[in-house]
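re the bet — no i am not wrong, look at it urself. input seq straight from the record:
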Amino acid sequence: MLDLSTFDLAALLPFILIGFAAQLVDGALGMAFEQVEIASVPFLKFVANKGPRDETANYSFVLRGYVRHWLGNVWGEFDRIKLTEIVGSKEKAATRVTGGEQ
């Protein structure tokens, strides 16, 4: 049987709070993604508060902030791993396709 006499709630409380906070953030990001999907617009249009035909939309300021923050993190990761250098620019791609001849 489980002995609860040695159970220390104070030691466990920080982990409970961190888990709760993570669930809140995950839920908010999921809600933001869902609203972008429902709006049927790209992320940048959602952040710019534009509809599918570039008309002014009325998306949540908070959710637009979540999407803006998420995009900043994604682009920061792309920069960190130097994705544009890995994928290559259009000039390099054209050179590779033609075999280096111009």
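see?? The chain has a mean pLDDT of 81. told u. also The first helix runs from residue 9 to 39. so pay up
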